[in-house]
Write a structure and sequence with these properties.
The chain is mainly β. It has a single domain (about 1-269), classed as Metallo-beta-lactamase, Chain A. It has five helices and 18 strands. The strands form three sheets. The chain has an eight-stranded mixed β-sheet, with helices on one face. The protein has a seven-stranded mixed β-sheet with strand order 11-12-13-14-16-17-18, covered by helices on one side. The longest helix has 15 residues, at about 225-235. It is globular. The N and C termini lie close together (about 10 Å). The mean pLDDT is about 95. The chain binds zinc ion. Zinc ion (ZN) binds near residues 114, 116, 117, 201 and 248.
């Protein structure tokens, strides 16, 4: 996989015959207490010095990814739109900067249904961000969560559930990575012998959770399952020829993973 272009809010890559775009939705700052050690305990004065803070907070990048395969445009996650902090909601501008018309996107698939991944379906002016014909794919275990959202009411009847193993398109397969949320899903994208694992929220704090995958996140619905999923996905990502794309890895959020000591190390591409 190699980078073929970039702008302020996007980076473009070639993955075999496919094109991958990393799209910046923005960032969100969170208190370091969100990071949890064994037993779901927040750190206090014992917060490791290697945790990177901005103004005393953890800064999480919020990224979405577009896969272009045989002319089909498949968007993975949509950012937060205007539903959360004003530091997010850049996705439409990122697409425009990358020269991708929103009308070109035929499928939107979600890693899970948290606000910073689904709320961008609605544009800041209240209209739909993507054309009404766009196929909306939601992990089936999270259809009830998706349908509970008032903001997303207009999409309730139009979304389709999918299970692990589902092939979104040739070379793009859904993998169970449950734990952060009940249906949390990774997408394995393969072309020309290269693989990209678009893994959603497997890592929230890159400065800590690669080297110490046992650390969890306050918003992991099931801490133990999220920890196990992280270990499984890290092992999968550490294979030769594989890169990862993370929703909360520092923008553009794409790089490689290698085993190091008791944990792993991440190298941005
Ligand atoms: Zn997230």
């Amino acid at each position: 996989m190699q980078r073929t272009g970039s702008g302020v809010n996007f980076a473009r890559y070639a993955l075999g015959e496919m094109t991958i775009l990393a799209l910046r939705d923005g960032h969100v700052d969170m208190p370091p207490s969100r990071l949890r050690q064994e037993g779901d305990r927040p750190f206090g004065t014992d917060l490791p010095a290697s945790v990177q803070l901005v103004g005393g907070k953890l800064r999480l990048s919020v990224n979405a990814f577009l896969v272009i395969a045989r002319g089909r445009h498949i968007l993975i996650d949509t950012g937060a739109g205007n539903a959360w902090e004003p530091s997010m909601g850049l996705l439409p501008a990122a697409l425009e900067e990358a020269g991708v018309a929103r009308e070109a996107i035929g499928t939107v698939a979600f890693t899970h249904t948290h606000l910073d991944h689904v709320a961008g379906l609605v544009a800041a002016d209240g209209t739909e961000s993507f054309p009404p014909a766009t196929r909306l794919l939601v992990p089936e275990a999270e259809l009830p969560l998706f349908r509970r959202s008032g903001r997303l009411a207009r999409f309730r009847a139009r979304c389709t559930g999918f299970a692990p193993g589902f092939e979104l398109a040739e070379g793009i397969t859904a993998l169970a990575a449950h734990g952060h949320e009940v249906g949390h899903t990774a997408f394995e994208v393969t072309s020309g012998g290269e693989t990209l694992l678009i893994w959603g929220d497997i890592v929230h704090v890159p400065s800590m959770q690669f080297s110490r995958p046992e650390l969890t996140w306050e918003f992991d619905a099931d801490q133990a399952q999220a920890r196990a999923a992280r270990r499984e996905m890290l092992a999968r990502a550490a294979r030769p020829g594989c890169c990862v794309a993370g929703a909360h890895l520092d923008f553009p959020g794409i790089g490689s993973v290698a085993a190091e000591g008791e944990g792993y190390a991440f190298t941005p591409l």
